[in-house]
Amino acid sequence: MAMHARNTALLSFKVSALALAIATSTHTWAQQPEVVEVIGQAAQLEQALDDQRKSDAIRSVVHADAIGQLPDDNAAEALQRIPGLSVERDQGEGRFVRVRGLGSDLNAVTINGTLVPAPEDDRRAVAMDVLPSELIQSLSVVKTLTPDMDANSLGGTIEVESLSAFDHDGLFYSLNGEASHDDNTGKNSPKLSGAFSNRFSLGDGIDNVGVAAAISWQERKFGSDNVETGGAWDFDGEPRLEELEQRRYDITRERAGFGLNLDYRPSADSELYLRTLYSRFKDDEVRVGNVIEFADPQLPGEFGAAEAERSLKAREETQEVKSLVLGGKKRWGDWTLSGQAGYSQASEDSPGGIGGADFAGNDDFTNAGFSNTRTPRLSIDPGFFAAGNFSLDAVEWEEQITTDTERNLRIDLQHDFVWNGLPSQLKFGAKGSRRIKDNDLDIWVYEDFADLGFTDEQLNLGNVSTGRAHYGLGQFGPTISPTAVRHLISGLNRDDFFDDEESRINDFSIRENINAAYLMNTLDIDDLRLIAGLRYESTRLKAKGTGLNEGEFEATQRNNNYDHWLPGLHAIYQVSPTTQLRAAWTNTVVRPTFGQLFPGFVLDGDEAEFGNPDLKALESSNLDIGIEHFMGRAGTVSAFAFYKDIRHFVYEADLAGTGEYVDFDEAFTFVNGDKASVYGLELAYAQQFKWLPAPWNGLLLNANTTLTRSRAGIEQFDEDLGQIRKRDISLPGQSDVTGNLTLGWENRRMSLRLSANYKSDYLDEVGDVLDKRYDYQVDEQLFVDFSANYFITDQLQVFFEAQNLTDESYYVFTGRNDFNAQYEEYGPSYKLGLTLSHF
């Protein structure tokens, strides 16, 4: 590799997804930037600009740097640096991605052009932390879909591209080893990864074959402390608490992934490629808990009698994502034919674990109370902390496997021509996809142990206790050994304890067939580019499951078929060589989640609970308009406004008292709302201060914020008033404010980055359609991270990262910020590692 290119790599600096954004655009369409690009490393800036020039959509991008690393360890956390994006966290780790404040189930994820299904049984959202970052070459978020793209996202489509040999000139390899430390548990964890690519000559061609591979393995041990009420507040009069629960989580997560990509480019006019990716996410979680139920709802500082139990959950889940994409492209003069076949499967396998082991208190406890309504601190009789005062009541054993498989085939034909002296491009194509979501859950409930011949000593918690739990939110008491509980039930005949009802009701199979076709034309009129088109999507859904009607099982099968015509128009106007205007009118459709389409039901007297396979798909008409101004190689300022007019959004409601459920006390299901709207403003600024005197010329600054508002109407029958009542809510998952601020500094060998990511509070779940006091809101969060990198030699780099420096917590409240539904804290974590690379 040339020394100039190597020095460029040495100057690469892990800054946020906007700190090194967009270089100066040119005035001709052949060279003009056509998208909003967001780049994470200076070493990949030029490639990012190439991606930018090829796109006609409003798009944000995060690239791996020259040594194959994303700016953050986790793909989800790398994406949160982009304007308008935030993440949902699981045990403190970024997992699901929200775009423009909209819930993650309203967005789509693709790997190398094929849809990624979801491993969870009830969701469409894809957990981005399932994908090891070392397998990823770039992450793109398309916020305005063109007609040639799948229309199945509202906020945006996240495109994951894995490493290709044509991303590097010649031989490339990178080896990475690191160790991390979790402050909450005090445990250390390893990680190893590597990537390789090279080009070879086949036949008369020169470097026409590319081979790229990447592998990653990580085992992380960490934990969290939790106290929650589940919203068990009585708000009639002065708010009083009915129950609370303390939880301690100890988790081991193992991530492993492998990718192999092959490219064949026999000529400048043709190419073939094979993209493969396999990722495994194994989660081994042990959760011990204390559940305290007050005899009467209590104010803070009051004391009274309470029932209590100690609980254990110990399960192992393995999520796998497999993706295989075979495609190619061929050009004949002004015509280009391209095609792609894709297969992807996501699965979640729980081979067997303790879904719950409950140890009930032998007697009620006295002097039970709490302080602090936000993070309740328990005060109770000292006998509560003695293992001998609890006996085993029941054990629930669960086995579950969920698979989500998607197969697709698409073909596109493109014709470049001149119309009335103006460059034009006509593109049309078709796509068929077949998706199957299957869930199989088996549950065994072991109880009535005394009748089975167990002694009081065998059932006593002291017999299976392993000391006291590590718990940072107060006194906790004895923990529970999963091994001892498993041993206790191992000699029983499991067939005698099978829960036929829960097992059969939760089994289902949902098939979703989508056929699509589109027509799109691009026209360049001097400094104006217009892209107009129409997409058609036909959806055929078949859901099979089992219902329970007054104790009798019934097979269910529901079909739901619908069609959508989706026009779109994009415009890009070049005001000057450094300034451009963008506008887009698009139409999209998002299918309900599989949990909402669930085909099972339970009818028990005057109570009912069921899914709704007849739900309509969410439809949205979207308008985006904005301006970008580029200020040199790494400077930009931009503003984008957006508006979304949404129909048929989905929410949970109680239909009791209406229609066929007029005589029911409860009838919970999912229904379509009428209309909703989302509007907002994205502002971004990035600058490299190269003109300042040394050492200040190494400073980099990035700031972006997104202001979003939404409004949706929901309704439910009010039995007291005898009529339908309505109220307005924000869409679940929508934060009014999200933002990033990053300050960086770099020289030839060292780089430093301090970054902050903020999102305001948002509605998580409607607790009671008729009473907003029982809604669940997630509190605002501010995460602060630091990273440092130093090149010991041109090929050897040492790096250090510190995450969650301010020990930010996760807090959900009920109605008002004062009243806890869930509080969880994790502590900071630290990482130290080495990277050896050749490129």
From TrEMBL:
Q: Name one Pfam family in it.
A: TonB_dep_Rec_b-barrel
Family annotation (CDD domains): ligand_gated_channel
Give the family per the record: Belongs to the TonB-dependent receptor family.
- Domain called TonB-dependent receptor plug: residue spans: 52-157
PANTHER family xref list:
PLUG DOMAIN-CONTAINING PROTEIN, TONB-DEPENDENT RECEPTOR-LIKE BETA-BARREL DOMAIN-CONTAINING PROTEIN
**Could you tell me which PROSITE patterns the record lists for this protein?**
TONB_DEPENDENT_REC_3
Answer yes or no on keyword DNA repair. no
Q: What GO terms fall under cellular component here?
A: cell outer membrane
Q: State the organism of origin.
A: Halopseudomonas salegens
Superkingdom to which the source organism belongs: Bacteria
The positions making up the signal sequence are 1-30
Instruction: Fetch the NCBIfam families from UniProt.
Output: TonB-Xanth-Caul
UniProt keyword terms in alphabetical order: Cell outer membrane, Membrane, Receptor, Signal, TonB box, Transmembrane, Transmembrane beta strand, Transport
Q: Is this entry keyworded Ribonucleoprotein?
A: no
Residues covered by the TonB-dependent receptor-like beta-barrel domain: 358-805
Q: Which Gene3D superfamilies match?
A: TonB-dependent receptor, beta-barrel domain, TonB-dependent receptor, plug domain
Q: What is this protein called?
A: TonB-dependent receptor
| Localization in the cell | Cell outer membrane
Task: Report membrane topology.
Answer: Multi-pass membrane protein
